[in-house]
Amino acid sequence: MKRMLMIVGIALALLFGWYGVKKGLFFWYMSHFEMPPVTVATSQAYAKTWQAYLPSVGSVTAINGVDIAAEVPGIVREIRFTPGQWVRKGDILIVLDTSVEQAELKSNDAKLKLAKINHQRHQTLLQKNAISQAVLDATQAELQEAEAAVEATQARINQKTIAAAFDGRVGIRLVDIGEYISPGKPLVTLQSLNPLFANFSLPEQYVANLYFQQPVDVSVNLHNDSGQTIRGFINGINAKVDQTTRNILVQATIPNVKLDLYPGMFAVIKVWLPAQKKVVTLPQTAIAYSLHGDYVFIIKQKGKTKDDKPILNAYRQYVTVGEHRGNEVAILKGIEPGALVVTAGQLKLQNGTRVLINNEVELSPA
Question: In sequence order, what DSSP letters do the residues of 44-97 get, joined into one string?
């Protein structure tokens, strides 16, 4: 019995002894364990000079643009265009029924011919003293009245032949053949497309900064790419400030050689100013966001390894972000020029995480 108890005691001692050694080895390993460095991409903060500008939004409009309407009532007999067609000034677009006016014109032409014959006959009679001057004057008045009747009828016929007032592109027709239309009813839109206007407004405090031929950049979204920026110039500044909004209307002219811009498009405007400002810039991918504010990770060297390689650590630095231009962002506070910041791999970092820089491979910010 005693021998059995001794064996059990020795076994328990060995078991607990091994457990203690194992636990000690584990704590020793954990106390000396170092996480492998996180691979990140980096970029340097640069000091740059940016030209100042006034931001605004507006719309693209045609220099000449009109919704063509009829001057007189009538029935549509001909439509001589297709939607989207380019037309020249004077091209006939829509013809209304003129059968009544044509008959009236024939009648008035006949009356005009008779009035001319009578007037010539009375001129001959006057030379022979067969009639008085008053009779000749009456026939002269009848002749002028007949001429006016012909001109009036021809004018009504011309009003029913609707032509393009300027070069441009027509839109979708709003009437059908055989349809009766009233005066003022829109028939089709006609827009000149090159060049175009960009209309926008600016607060009244910037009026002193505006001048004619001032450069502007107009950005619009197109179907074939994410956006397009066109350089234009201010051609008009309104003569008064809107009393409701306290804004002043400004107009710029922009080219549209490819005819891919359309009146009515939304536009983002930048009015460039002569003044320049110095800023510290970073790639937009360097900025991380949190409830406490925007921040970046700055890379700092904390000594060297045994084989003389630098030990790099990433530290969180809160910043004040300013204007965005392209893929760059201005840093108003928190970063000095020359600082090395992380641009990809931020979500794997904690404050003080050891990092390994690899700018040759494109990394995800995550």
Answer: E-EEEEEEEEEEEEEEEEESSEEEEE-SS-EEEEEE---TT-EE-TT-EEEEE-
